[in-house]
Amino acid sequence: MKRAALFAGIVGLIGAAWIANPLPANAAKPDQVNVVDETGGVLFGTGTPGSVQITNFPLALGPANPSDIATVSTHFENVCPDSPSSVLARVFNRLEGSDGSAHIFSIPPGKVLVITGVEIEAYANGIVANHLLDVRLSKNTVNDANIMVATALSDGFGIVRLHYQNPTGTVVKSGVNVCLSARDVTASSPAFAVHGILSGYLADDN
Question: How far is Cα 91 from Cα 137, in angstroms, rounded to an integer?
Fold first, then answer.
């Protein structure tokens, strides 16, 4: 009994001391982390939304240097190799320089071309409205490996305008051509003209 009474007394003294000496108002509080969803709702933790710090972000994609950025266009004289006569096909091989110059372009050995966007204009045969055009962006020959296939009606000026975009990039290896082709389905003939401007960058072929 004496030991029990002594123990109770000690506990009482400790409790009294803690109550009599609470933490100061300006004392640093322990860090508190809550797990929240994308809207800020607390999944578990306290009722006050916290945050979770993520350190293992994926590597960012993009050009390593400004000189790796590539703007490449087609030219009306540069036919895509091995294209069938049923379509009008042009190859992207004109590098548009930042100084306004233009040079013949091909993907260098040991590099890949990462395509992030292409602006396309295709003209109906006879440059008339409401002709259905089949437009394709492909690797090598027209039907080899299609990157994009689209069909659209020509507008009042006889033109189909398309925009291809891939933020993560479409990779093309060295030695491979990028071709743009158009066929006038309504007229059962090649399109009158087709032109494209490609945006992307060069990267190491790892």
Answer: 10
Residues 65-100 pLDDT 10s: 888 899 999 988 888 888 888 899 999 999 998 888
CB neighbours of residue 34 within 10 Å: 16
DSSP for 135-201 reads EEEEESSTTTEEEEEEEEE--TTSEEEEEEEEEEEEEEETT--EEEEEEETTTTEE-SEEEEEEEEE
Query: Which of 161, 159, 137 has its CA nearest to residue 89?
Result: 137
Residues 152 and 130 sit within 8 Å (Cβ to Cβ): no
Cα 129 to the center of its chain, rounded Å: 33
The answer to whether the Cα torsion of 168, 115, 176, 132 is positive or negative is: positive
Q: Tell me the β-bridge partners of 103.
A: 95
Enter the pTM of the model: 0.67
